[in-house]
Amino acid sequence: MRRFGWVGAAALAVALPWLPFLPPFWITLANYIGIASVVAIGLVVLTGVGGMTSFGQASFMGFGAYTTAILSTQWGISPWLTLPASLAVAGIAAWLIGQVTLRLSGHYLAVGTIAWSVALYYTFANLDFFGRNDGISGIPPLAIGGFRFIDPRATFAVVWIGVLASVLATRNLLDSRAGRAIRALSGGSVAAASFGVNTARARSLAFVHAAVLAGFAGWLYAHMQRSVNPTPFGLNASIEYLLMAVVGGAAHIPGAIIGAALVTVVNDQLQDLLPRLLGQSGNFETIVFGIVLVATLQAAPRGIWPLLARARPRHRDIQPDAPPLPHRALPTPNLTGGEVLDVRGLSKNFGGLAAVSDLGFTLASGEIVGLIGPNGAGKSTTFNLLTGVAEPSGGEIRFLGRSLAGLPARAIARLGIARSFQHVKLVPAMPVIENVAIGAHLRGHAGAIAALLRLDRAEEARLFAESARQLARVGLAEHADRPATELALGQQRIVEIARALALDPVALLLDEPAAGLRHAEKQALATLLRQLRADGVAVLLVEHDMDFVMTLADRLVVMDFGTRLAEGRPHDVRENPAVIEAYLGAPG
Amino acid sequence: MDSTIGLILVQDGVINGAIYALLALSLVLVFTVTRVIFIPQGEFVAYGALTYAALDNGQLPGSVWLLCGLGVAAALAGLWRRQVSARLLALTLALPALVLAVAIWAAPRRLGVAFDAALTLAIVAPMAPYLYRIGFQPLAEASVLVLLIAAVGVHLAMVGLGLVFFGPEGWRATALPAPSLALGDLPVPGQALWIVGLAIALMLALFAFFELTLFGRALRATAVNRLGARLVGIGTAQSGLIAFAIAGAIGALSGILIAPLTTVYYDSGFLVGLKGFTAAIIGGMAAYPPAVLAALAVGLLESFASFWASAFKEVIVFTAIIPVLLWRSLRHGPAEEEE
């Protein structure tokens, strides 16, 4: 939506409820839908995009609601001034909980929030400070000048402008460097970390963003309802918010709003209908919701929204004249002898199995070294050791003269080692160009706050101009806007190379880049790699296509059973009887 | 607090801990075999308790109708997926019909504690494999997170169904017959002996099942490597059904054991299950002995917390999970890759 569209939507939110034929009941319901939408939009970032989930969103809402309830009733602070406090309390609570659970695998967050929200419910319900089970009433309504927002039609404007603000903030966040880090999580945290993404921080950001939105919803709720009590912030409410996101389509902002509308309306109808049908009172709607939740997961796991809207790839405008990103000075071969990578005595044991043992080799700038060997020789493990994905059991890796011991993957990426993966690890639903931009993650600096306020546009333009350049360099410019998974597998490998180049690497580690390529594509790849060599990039290449690697590599390192079998120029290695026997199985 | 109160609290803690241990065991079993975090476990406790209490009062428990409904739904799910076999129909249609007939015949006759307990198990336990067929089997390849959300959905539905079939009133059953003992000054009620004794017996039985029987070994194989187990002919679905059946039976049995101790409502199970669940999490969701120890710790913590700060009993028990998660998080280092 262009700026005009947002202003228009806000004007609509002010004017719409005053239309004469709208019954007040539906306006009130729409206000509840709006508040639920804000919470569900938070779950889009957390669950749909970040691949985590929380059963504690209602308790974060409670944080926001109780904060403003206490501040405005006991200290008489204006609701507009309590808003930052409500957001901050929810955000800080989420940050603390995230510190505890986000480093563990995904379901611990969910499970932690279940326990946490039960504990919080009883805290709210048992402390005088929170008014116990009765809660806090007499909360002042929002007011501007002398106008008090009490009429649901007036509240409608506040709530739905709040929804618009949440949509805008979330869209801004997702379309930014920090948001790409969150989206990169679904391509596998190893790949994200290999391009310098601090995965723990990205998870934490997603969680805090979702919680701050929930806190905002709680603030809205408190001033609309004018009283708070523990029930709307309990576990069942949290489950309902998750249901909204799942049913609507957890990966899409419109899905969250549709889900919120559906669940709220159906809930309202069922609470009327079911007790009459069953002849007793009670919360029978949970039966329907439970069944709908499971059925949605089975039949339409991506929710309703993708069924309604065919995803059209959105074209991203690239500004080719954006000032280029700073470029790393590559070590000059002539001055330093060119060695960028020096591996000595490297070994890795998995239990009793030595995947790599006592491996040593060097890699110089402006050189292509082929790392070859039969399947299971330890080549991919070597890559993982070099890039900090796995920790060596022994030996030393020196890069540009410094030891890599103990460095995490993202620190190694920062030093200038970029890689591709044997099994392609792109973010499936994300356009090719944005996948490439993840490679340039470390060349930008803008954080989440800058993204929310759109202060990152100049830097984003530079990052995307660079990504477009690298994509053009590998010959995939015309595919920039397509989702990565739509490309052929061979092309996806090439996208991985473009992503690696976007890091501005000193050393490029490519794991079977030519697999799945046609002849002409292989030729183009060889030309590209020669060009990189001429530019002074050090290239380490794992490849099974012998013609490809023999004609391209300056030197070969042959591995077998984790050890170095031979090393030398391709021609000499080809004649080496030990290599022939190990690699080809039989002489000749 | 004097030592007598301390002893009583310890006794309470051990009794509750034994129940939590049983639940934690079945949660670990279900999670390792199917990757489902079985949130509805607590509903099986409530269903078990309420069914047993109804039989104890000479009434036909509403849950038999639910059993029949779930059986029909499971049969239809099988039909929908074209997996119909004579065995499926026998298990999903004939079995509930038989149980219904027995229940209608037996309920007013009050045939005694052992019979009531057995009938309760027959009514409640099969619901778990039906739920597996209906809800979880189609999601067998989904991520842990999706399975967890589905489990929460099942929990939600089961609480509502509990209200429909048992009504809003709480029930309490008469105690299982047993002499009470005295350990020094401390009187030990017979029910406590039943609970601890049965818990220990059940753990030994489970141990024997996993070590000695082919089914048990198949379950362990599935838990270690699902793909590998399938390649050697151990079906994921069948292992899942067995794991769910065991979990349902353990849940129902736990319900029978607590029914004489406390008044149980249709929604009482959730907190009980969640405490078993806390124990399973503290134990790491992977191994049985740590889960049992953690369950005893949770039981003791709860019992002492209810003495010192009864209003905050639940708060204390559930926040105890946070330091444990923190410790695991620091020990494990960076997040492991999701499957």
Can you walk me through this structure?
The complex is a heterodimer of chains A (588) and B (339). Chain A has 588 residues and is of the alpha/beta class. Chain A has a domain at 26-233. Helix content of chain A is 55%, strand content 12%. Chain A contains 24 helices and 14 strands. Chain A has helices at 3-15, 24-49, 57-74, 79-101, 107-126, 152-174, 177-184, 189-194, 199-225, 235-248, 253-278, 285-299, 305-308, 333-336, 379-386, 409-415, 432-439, 448-452, 457-473, 489-502, 519-535, 546-552, 570-575, 577-584; strands at 136-137, 143-144, 147-148, 227-228, 339-350, 353-364, 368-372, 394-399, 402-403, 417-419, 507-511, 538-542, 555-560, 563-568. A six-stranded mixed beta sheet of chain A has the order 10-11-12-7-13-14, with helices on both faces. Chain A has a four-stranded antiparallel beta sheet with strand order 6-5-8-9, with helices on one face. The longest helix of chain A has 27 residues, at 199-225. Chain A is elongated and about 85 Å long. Chain A starts with a helix and ends with a helix. Chain B has helices at 3-34, 41-56, 63-80, 86-106, 113-124, 127-136, 144-166, 190-212, 214-224, 226-231, 236-258, 269-282, 288-308, 313-319, 321-332, and strands at 181-183, 186-188. The relative contact order of chain B is 0.20. Chain B is globular, with a radius of gyration of 20 Å. In chain B, helix 1 packs parallel to helix 8 and helix 2 runs antiparallel to helix 5 (113-124). Chain B has one domain (3-169, 188-332). In chain B, strands 1-2 form a two-stranded antiparallel ribbon. The model of chain B is unreliable at 334-339 (pLDDT under 50). Chain B has 339 residues and is mostly helical. At the A-B interface, helix 4, helix 5, helix 9, helix 10 and helix 12 of A face helix 7, helix 12, helix 14 and helix 15 of B.
